[in-house]
Amino acid sequence: MVKTNGKKLFSYLGRFALLHLFINTVFAFLFLNIQRSLPEGGRIALDIFSPYQPFSFSTVITQFIRILACGLVLYPFYDTITNGRKGMLILFGAMWGLTLFTSADPAPGTIQGMVYTQTTFFEHAITIFTVAIQMLVFAWLFIIWEAGSGYGLSGREKTDIVNPEDRPPEDLLDDETENVSAPESISGNVQLYTMRFTLLHLLSYLIAGSVFYQLSGYMGVVASRETLEIFRPREEYNYFFFLIISGQIFRGIVLALLIYPFHNTYIKKINGWFLLFGLLFGLTLLGSPVFIPVTLLREAAFVETIGSLRIGIPEAITQMLLFSVLFFYWQKRLFRKRNL
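Given the sequence above, the corresponding structure tokens read:
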């Protein structure tokens, strides 16, 4: 089998970041003008979470850090994105679906925001629509740029083709799946794959949430959030618990489908669980339009900023890590059983 190396990491990240920064600046200008025209009562969530920030040097830096995180975790899947007919849709799914819609932040435009907050329908809709158009433009232009540079589907260079004999030893590990091309042939029936993914996502979410709710002082955080009219009241516990369960089932299904195109790549590797964790943590949290920009731009002391990260972040890391390890080895075991 041949393997496309692509361009070196730094040149790839440069193109990825430069294109994103330019497009994000344009869409931020348009979005913020619409946001400012809304009545104050109709933009509470947008003002709090700030999915787009005004142009400034600090905004450029935070967006650059954010997009570097996205580019790094997507780099191992470069061939999946650039050398397939559906590459643009896969990249769009990652940059819109994973960084926004299934983000770990309860921001406008996210499933978490629909579950945990009382954000208005318009705030959700305008954020989803704007980011979707932005990421469609980004994915389209990036695929064209990569193809034109000689490393995409239409421009594979002979110097980037590697014979099996020349491949490094680590790429030959777990090579029993190397000749399988269709994700379904490795992951099995897509419906069963989605069910396994969703089940483990829900269980790991509930386990991590229950543990950290007790250990991290969530009681005080929840009490303080009650003063913010944007968060849902917890008085009706049964209803709120139903929202969490149903929301995570839906979120798990969407996550499973968005990550499905990357399955063949990470399942072949010894460290595939880490690649899966990178997709989840790097895109749904670090790649969120809210997390890095709002955290770094907040007007608070450094110690206070770092202290605020102990609520939520350890839980997210634990849940994603637990899920990634369990799901990876479950999938690996099922594949080996089918090939005995």
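Confidence is low (pLDDT under 50) at residues 1-7, 153-182. Try to locate this feature in the token string yourself.
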